[in-house]
Design a protein that fits this description.
Layout: H1 2-10, H2 14-33, H3 50-64, H4 68-92, H5 104-123, H6 130-149, H7 151-154, H8 159-168, H9 183-189, H10 194-210, H11 222-226, H12 239-261
Helix pairs in contact: 2-3, 2-12, 3-5, 3-9, 4-5, 4-8, 5-6, 5-9
Length: 262
């Protein structure tokens, strides 16, 4: 207990936030994968702050990366391969008790499109190349919505074609957290004002509370975010990209095997 209090006094690094997010995420996915075995619904509560924490760290990562293009390409490729991986896994291991719709990479990539669009709008404040920057900004902000319009026609295509093409689309309609991804550009706009960022999270949580979903528990993400000290901490650039798909597939396979044995 004393160690935890001391840690909060020192503040949490980006590394600390990511580790906290990973721990809560695993608990949430244990609930998802073992729901057929009667996993208690309260396990799902642990996962409600997770997306918010990762949205916040993505704002930090995008703001400080040395190459925004490489950062975005890494997320885009992860989004594509994660989508294909879940589709292939479910086709090889038939297990209709669990549906793999997990792909936080799509949410984060959509968020980078929004953030890059904001960057172009900010550049448009200066007279030089103002029109070009405005056009690029509008296009980037529109892409997730335009891509969403392409999803419906794809449903009429053969399944392998539909899955492959939809895997390539940064559509907000396909994002795991859907409209909640709109929180990313808002957090980015106020990246230098923690109070406003926490207020934005609270407003989203209130909205979910009004529609009576337990996603309102995302408000708990404010606690670790408030204690963020602005430091990076230990590096773990590649770890999450590997751990995220690996633990989901392993939990899915374990659940499928145990269910069939049962």
């Amino acid at each position: 207990m004393n160690a935890g209090i001391q840690k909060l006094k020192q503040g949490l690094t980006t590394f600390d936030l990511k580790i906290l997010g990973i721990i809560l995420m695993v608990i949430d996915h244990v609930h998802q994968m073992f729901l057929p075995f009667g996993a208690p619904n309260w396990l799902d509560w642990f996962g409600r702050p997770v997306a918010t924490i990762f949205f916040f760290t993505s704002v930090i990562g995008f703001s400080h990366t040395h190459s925004k293009s490489k950062y975005m390409l890494r997320l885009y490729l992860s989004m594509f391969f994660m989508s294909l991986l879940t589709f292939i896994t479910q086709n090889i291991v038939k297990y209709d008790k669990v549906v793999l719709s997990n792909n936080i990479f799509r949410d984060l990539f959509v968020g980078t499109l929004f953030m890059l669009g904001i960057n172009f709008f900010q550049k448009a404040r200066h007279p030089q190349h103002r029109t070009r920057n405005l056009i690029f900004g509008i296009i980037l902000l529109a892409i997730p919505f335009i891509a969403s319009l392409l999803v419906l026609p794809l449903t009429k295509a053969p399944i392998p074609v539909m899955i492959t093409l939809s895997s390539l689309l940064p559509a907000i309609a396909l994002a795991e957290n859907n409209v909640m991804t709109l929180m990313i550009p808002l957090l980015y706009l106020f990246k230098d004002n923690r109070k406003w960022q926490c207020l934005i999270i609270a407003i989203f949580a209130l909205a979910y509370g009004v529609v009576r979903t337990n996603q309102w528990l995302m408000i708990l993400a404010i606690i670790p975010i408030w204690f963020y000290n602005g430091n990076k901490g230990r590096g773990m650039k590649s770890f999450f990209y590997i751990f995220y798909p690996t633990h989901i597939i392993l939990l899915y396979l374990l659940s499928a095997v145990l269910y069939n044995l049962h």
